[in-house]
Amino acid sequence: MTNLALVFPGQGSQFSGMGRSWFESESSVRERFEQASEIVGYSLAELCFTGPPAELTRTRHAQVALLVLSFGMYEVLTKDRKPPVSHMAGHSLGEITALLAAGAMSFEDAVRLVRARGEAMEACTADGGTGMIAALRMPVAQVEKWVEEFNSEGHHVQVANYNTEQQAVLAGTLEDLRGMTVLLEERGARVAKLNVAGAFHSTYMAEAVPAYVAEVEKTVFTKPAVPVCSTVSGRVYESAQEIREALSVQLTSPVRWDAVVSTLAADGVTLWIEVGPKSVLTKMVAGAVAEARAHSLDEDTEGAYAALDRAIEERRNRPGLVGLCLGAAAATRNRNFDDDEYAAGVIAPYRRLQKLASVDDEELTEAQKRDALDLLRTVMVTKGVPDAEQRERIASILRRTGDTELFEPNGVAVS
User: Fold this and answer.
1) Considering the entire predicted model, what is its pTM?
2) Which of 116, 170, 223, 252 is the most exposed place for a label (fewest CB within 10 A)?
3) 92 part of the active site
């Protein structure tokens, strides 16, 4: 069984010329570029394709460009097919793209939010006195100890990204980072200076928070149609309010990409498709999850489409949602021996499920799917199944069928 996650890159994946082939070949991408350009007041096409590379690298420009291109690519990916997506996630900025793709916000709101985010972060780094370095090929737990040791001498370096077990990104003043680099290299770590304007995802971003939070508060969020994993907590969002709260602290909180990958892998994700420029997340996932099949839609377009089409075909050959509900209803051990309750709460719902099973899986409406889940829940309640077990059985069915838009974390999976 293939569980699919779509992941979206963050700042650092931008490059001059990015998205040109998508823009030229897909009218929907051109429309998104034009729509966003009207909102931000400059031409994204000129910025990405003909403008000076230094302008695209600016935080206020890079973040908007990455959001719009990545979402445009997502719309192309899903234009003629319905991928069986079980989860979405994004690295830092990419998390907003994931929320947009999962239907948690409008495109216009996403562009305005990311514009405010990039402008606030860029303003916070105007003095040029901070930056970031990556500590590579060294256990993150060991790097944390060395950071603590270094800071005990009056320095203030912070872990900003927990990317993998062997890769962390550190933030601080340029002077402190030079000293930290010497310490890390002396102890066998490989260090790379990152081409970013400041100490993102650290307390050095505190001055950017008020302007960004003001825009977060104006943004309308809804519960995602597909589970989206937070890079602040490493857990799936359970409500629109939780999204608002996490985004409000995102700029000064470390990116827990390692926790996101662990959560998705534990939930059974085996196929990962990175939707956006480059293959930064594809490489991270491949290095962190032993049997992951990871593809970059930008750099391995053919491989990504082939993997996706196999997953879609596999889904077609799986038992459908109603069939799985029937199986679960029949297999659930009965703890209720009241004949009248059993007749009303088990036999009658089961017969209704059997009638629903006559409808072709591809023709089932969302209302019919919700009805099937309602009927299964009635059977489980009548049979005395504990609430936690009910939630897990329903969640398992939705993961298997790819109908994660019906997911309700509080256990009310329907209506």
Assistant:
1) 0.82
2) 252
3) yes
